[in-house]
Amino acid sequence: MIRYRLLLLRRMFLGLLMGWGLWIVYPPLSVYAQLTVSGRVTSAEDGQGLPGVNVVVSGTTVGTATDLDGRYVLVVPSPNDTLVFSFVGFETAVVPVAGRTVIHVELRPAVILGEEVVVIGYGTLRQREVGGAVTTVNAEELNPIATLSVNQMVQGKVPGLDLRVRTTQPGGGVSVNVRGAISPRGNNTPLYVIDGVPITEYRQSDPGLYDRDLGFYGGVDRDPLAFLNPSDIESITVLKDASAAAIYGSAAANGVVLITTKSGRAGAVRVDYRGSYTAQRMQDYFPLLNARQFMEEQRRLSYDRYLYENQLPPYGSRNPNSVPPYTPLFSDTDILNAGRGTDWIDLISENGQVIEHNIAVRGGSPNTQFYTSFNLQLNDAVLKNSNLNRYSLRLNVDQNLSSGVRLRLRTQATRLEGNNASTGANAGGPEKFNMIQNAMTFAPTVPIYDENGNFTKSYYRIQMNPAAFLIIDDDSRVTSLFAAPTLEVDLTDQLQLNVVGQYQEETTLRGFYLPRTADHDVLPEGMAQKSTNSVQNYSAESYLTYTGSVGPGVLTAVAGAGYYRGGTEGSFMQGVGFFTDAFGYNNIGVSSDKLRSIMNSWKSARTKLSQFARINYALQDRYVLTLVARRDGSSIFSENHKWGFFPGVSFAWLLSDEPFLRNVASLSQLKLRLSYGEAGNESVLSGNTLQLYTTGYPFVIGSTEYNGVAVSQVANPNLKWETVQTFNVGLDFGLWRYRVRGSLDVFVKTARDLLDFNPLPVNNPVGRLADNVGSTRSRGFELALHTENLSSSQLRWNTDLTLAYYKSYWVERNPRVPLPPYIGEHDPLDALYGWQTAGIIRKPEDRPAYMPNANLGNLIFVDQNNDGVLNEQDVVLLGNTTPRWQLGLNNTISLGNFDVNVFVYGYLGFKRYNNFAPSVDAISQVTTPMNTTIYARDIWSTTKPEGTRPGVAANPYATNNPTGNTDFDLHDASFLRLKSITLGYTIPSRWLGGVASSVRQARLFIDVQNLGVLTNYPGFDPEYTEPNPYPKYTSITVGLELGF
């Protein structure tokens, strides 16, 4: 049955909503007589007053016009009237009076749809000229409230952009790909370009934790765009096909995301402030066994384990008198007095909160325009001892140095600091440092402290007490600097020179200390680690742009070159064994266990040279041909392939401008797009083109032993980058004066020269050689639709729909690597293989003839070919693990001073294992014993023959399964999520008293995130792949926006 989990802070939200609603319905002041309204009408472009603007009371002939300075005075019949401001060449503004006496209005220049400017690589084009698959999301469509992630703001708003949150910890990582991940071994993340500058070494700078006994994990799973303030974003443009992305060459196989930040405007200085408070509540984690249930299930299952291990009936025929009697771990009295016990999940969690202040100032003169902002976000997460604070400062300046010479400067400095939750791999720590996993599995019968005030131990000694995680220090401090100056020189009226520089540095300092008092089983005397890592990127680009008439058309051409250098360096140290916790991680040298002390350092760098060009020719403003090419040479390319060439071509045809369609009244625009292009994926080359050696191979000459060096990787001088080819057919349309508009794209995306490893002869100790072999493909379509459902002076309702479908599959495999019989040559890339099951053996007669040795409580595996043997011939394709369909639905309604936004997104057509099922292991429940979810109550046993989950007896046939997978606990994970509801109210100026003349805008808002999910998936959340994910939460934000 489909379940709808409405995970809302009900009382809090309803209380706020009712109180706010009463305040609005019964305001402190009401006026029901005519009043005089005055104000000034200015241009949104330069802030200058507009003379001659018509100001009319809607539905009447009452009106006036602005004077030479753009000022007006008008007596309106009622405070509930609406004013209409209209002027030739500007968009009409409809503004409710709402009792205000001072109304200032900015008019935006009228943009004819199809004529709006679209940011592309190294320039801009009019929308009607774009021939590739390009989608732009503007600032008005983004929701920057209480988020650290620029990435998350576009989720569900760009068709074909697959963006899923990997972890909800503050600033946590996201998985992003465009039109499917088709590189099996390479990076499938798109290239990010910020204010025209490619981020050439785009990687996390956070160092990881390491221990010889506990294993190694990488850095904190952090969104690498966390350094950007979402409120600074002007637009985000996604180049989805290779014809549009080819100008970025070997780094653009996975698409390109262009991020443009806000800039200054000439005119009066404007100040915008937004302050908000967010309350977060962890959504209910999957229910665990309480103390009494834990005891009952442990005793029930341990009794069956006793029968099985001693081969007593019904598992065997041994005489019960020949073995020792069963002794339960918990008695009837223990169970009767147990109660609910310790709720470890509740112990490590709390209600989170986010406090945010954002202030932006923009303005300038005709020669100097500036935009500057400061953002402060204090984020205390829903797991205790987990927080992240961001301090961000941006300054963007556009300066006319002289006639035809301009300097544009984009700078940002960001500081992130906080304590990382110990959540295993997500926090860069060993899996045994996973507070969520421990809280789920730590026995609820155990108290927090023992009689001496020390943390208690579980029955499974190696488990650390969940409360002990709360005294771990794991601090990260990230400093990010970004600067990108651009010099623009108009050489002639038609020729412009652009010189762009860029510097980015992100440095992370991380300190970790596991105290002695945590009483860790492996590290009882404490462990300290300290690490630093710095990522630096430099680039310099220079290009010429020509625009002029050539023959009957207009030619726009770009040609340039670039130099890029990126690298990382860092160091790491560890100490084990401390006589006191007083030093934390700040005096590692006093550690006593010198054998486990570690010091390490690293450094790497890469460089790239590029030449690029684009030619755009528009004939009769109706037929547009675009040619793109880039040539890249990189230090990570192999010896025999140092340079790559990446071309692209697109054609746009404005069908609606043809005579045979020009008179169709309902048709505002119809444009056909055709494109083809190639781009490269250079990520597969990193480290794989080199001959590598390793030490630690001793050999003896005479009687002396030496430490030898051996080859660990054989170089392949012919190794190339992966190349992605995209063919795209698109249709842009607008109907009924663009009240309905959108685009439809169909694409084929093929990757060739895939990285794979060919086996070497058995006498070669390396074992394999990197090579280019194989091909994959993704096919699909995308739809973007915008409708203006209602449009009047009082009520507006717009809807945006995005829909995408794609399927990725193999085209060609490596012929040197034989495939198992169950894998098809052209199977999906995300195929999941395994055995099908047909229930549980509850009684002897349920045992299939081909499973004669199966035990009661075992899963029944399906013999697909009826040959009486379970083996690889019985493995089938169980499904795919990535969504086939992506959906986004956004509705915006404004009624008078109110505005409402509702956003829903979803992923359909994929399967996922129940992410809590791995914790339900009948044998572990007995032998450890560890706690688990209430699924344990469904485990089959001799005293519960109706159980639906496998029992304690081992299945002798499971070892024949070559994949280890079955369809048991595999479910359809399709879902629709109600992501956000935002309710806003613009405060009438009459309520502002004496400050009304100074306040341009005042708006209150409530935003609710993650209200619920519609799904048939039984696990915690269908978006998560981790078995013990960072908890998801529902949040309510209340805030105030002010404009001066």
Automatic annotation (TrEMBL):
Keywords: Cell outer membrane, Membrane, Transmembrane, Transmembrane beta strand, Transport. Transmembrane segments: none annotated. InterPro entries: Beta-barrel_TonB_sf (IPR036942), CarboxyPept-like_regulatory (IPR008969), Plug_dom (IPR012910), Plug_dom_sf (IPR037066), TonB-dep_OMP_SusC/RagA (IPR023996), TonB-dep_OMP_SusC/RagA_CS (IPR023997), TonB-dep_rcpt-like (IPR039426). The keyword Amino-acid biosynthesis does not apply. PROSITE patterns: TONB_DEPENDENT_REC_3 (PS52016). This is SusC/RagA family TonB-linked outer membrane protein. It is a multi-pass membrane protein. It is found in: Cell outer membrane. Pfam families: CarbopepD_reg_2 (PF13715), Plug (PF07715). One of its GO terms (cellular component) is cell outer membrane. Residues 127-256 form the TonB-dependent receptor plug domain. Belongs to the TonB-dependent receptor family. It comes from Rhodothermus marinus.
